[in-house]
Amino acid sequence: MTESRVHINPVLKPDRPLYRIFQYPRFIQALDEKELALVTPGIWPDPDEDPMAKVVLEHDVAGRTKQHPLSEYLSPCWAQCWSDAADSDVLLRAYSILNSDAEGPERTENEGVRVKTTVRSLTEVMTTWAEAMPEHHFYLGQVLYDAPTAFPQSLINRLSGPAAHHCFSSPHGRADSMLTKRSIFKHEEEVRILAIESYCARRGAQSTEIEI
User: In the chain, what are the domain boundaries?
Assistant: First the structure.
């Protein structure tokens, strides 16, 4: 059943509004192609957006210390960020690149466009995705913010559990790893769409375009 692969955080009620700032060219592209682009966190500007990908595991083999990056065990993931913030000047500035020296269309080429949707609308779209992509799980989750001193300790603590490094290999575990950020970004009030593959067949793909 597709519903079993679409996971919505219970705090996200169906009629709750969500917002996203698109750079103008990306907005026009999404309209023209009727697709949303979900991107692998590995190419996001901030490496701390995917904290588990930075973790290196050490174990002893015949008296010698071996290292393996935890990223080798992470389920492939693609994401897109939305927000509860209806009118955030900080986010609008972050996603707008205004060329003050240009005139006419060139001046606003990379200006930000604020788009509004609802949890209900995204859930309906994600259900359609799940029907077309049976190898994926889809999540809509609210980001939790940890104090810098604790980040990403709350995630690393799970490595001490029974599943050890495999706790992030499942879609649920991988989703949890992508829904924690440093508290200095709390103003973003972020909600993320996640597409997580159940196996590693597409590891390395940087983006996936999905019809809307």
Answer: 2-18+41-85+119-211
**List of long-range contacts for 29-34, beta carbons under 8 Å, 24+ apart:** 30/212, 33/209, 34/211, 34/212
Q: Which residue has the higher pLDDT, 86 or 93?
A: 86
Q: Which pLDDT value is given to residue 3?
A: 63
| Three state DSSP letters for the chain | CHHHHEEECCCCCCCCEEEEEEEHHHHHHHHHHCEEEEECHHHCCCHHHCHHHHCEEEEEECCEEEEEEHHHHCCCEEEEEEECCCCCHHHHHHCCECCCCCCHHHHHCECEEEEEEEHHHHHHHHHHHHHHCCCEEEEEEECEEECCCCCCHHHHHHHHCCCHHHHHCCHHHHHHHCCEEEHHHHHHCEEEEEEEECCCCCCCCCEEEEEC
Higher-confidence position of 108 and 85? 85
Close Cβ partners of 203 (under 8 Å, ≥ 6 residues apart): 76
**For 185-198, what is each residue's pLDDT tens digit?**
899 999 999 999 98
pLDDT of residue 202: 45
Phi, psi of 180 (to 5 degrees): -130, 130
Q: Is the pLDDT of residue 165 over 80?
A: no
Amino acid identity of residue 125, one-letter, is V
Residues 6+ apart with CB under 8 A from 37: 26, 30, 80, 207, 208, 209, 210
